[in-house]
Write a structure and sequence with these properties.
2 copies of one chain form a homodimer. Chain A is an all-alpha fold. Helices cover 71% and strands 0% of the residues of chain A. The first copy, chain A, has 5 helices and no strands. At the A-B interface, helix 2 and helix 3 of A face helix 2 and helix 3 of B.
């Protein structure tokens, strides 16, 4: 059966009702963890570059603000709830942190939703 | 006239009434700025060392917490109000960030207060 995704509140309610098979859960978890690890590695590298260039105290507090912002952004973005996961993946594909090919194995409906939302973002 | 410093609230009120000559203000400002600059330089170096060693995300957020704590501590410590300055200098001498010799030129009463408080801390 093909599931259609209405927009807004209805879309959220549809996503809550979506079924995730065991295989899909494994794929989702792997993709999620890989993207998160990649993003954290990038964050470490960018912070190290920033730190190495510091010569004034103002840049030290700039690094602090940068890290706080980064932490909040990553916390917000990486939300592993099945009711949110398609939106999370859409954002990651849109940002280039994840490739649609990595998600192969998810149902066609889920992949279509992710692709459409990534293109629309 | 020799000023005696009572303890607690009275000491604070005595310090508020202290007179600072122009020469003393110049000495105080120079010592304050030098100690602050030294502390900021140390903070930059320690942050750079911490950053360079980061290999896990948890250490990234540890660096963030370290910087936040450092900023608050420095803000709290470096309080350039004449009513607070003798306490600030006492702390700096006690911590080894400032030498009593650097403060030469302040009145004997002020120097005695700073020395006594630095030793008592």
């Amino acid at each position: 059966m093909e599931i259609s995704f209405p927009s807004g509140k209805d879309s959220y309610s549809t996503m809550r009702q979506l079924k995730w098979s065991s295989t899909e859960k494994v794929i989702a978890r792997r993709c999620f963890d890989q993207a998160l690890q990649r993003e954290l590695s990038e964050a470490i590298q960018s912070a190290q570059k920033m730190a190495a260039k510091i010569s004034h105290a103002s840049e030290l507090w700039e690094l602090e603000r940068h890290l706080t912002q980064l932490r909040k952004e990553i916390d917000r973005k990486y939300d592993y709830r099945y009711s949110r996961l398609l939106l999370v993946f859409s954002d990651l594909v849109q940002e280039g942190q994840l490739d649609l090919a990595d998600l192969r194995g998810l149902s066609e409906d889920k992949l279509r939703y992710i692709r459409q939302h990534a293109e629309a973002a």
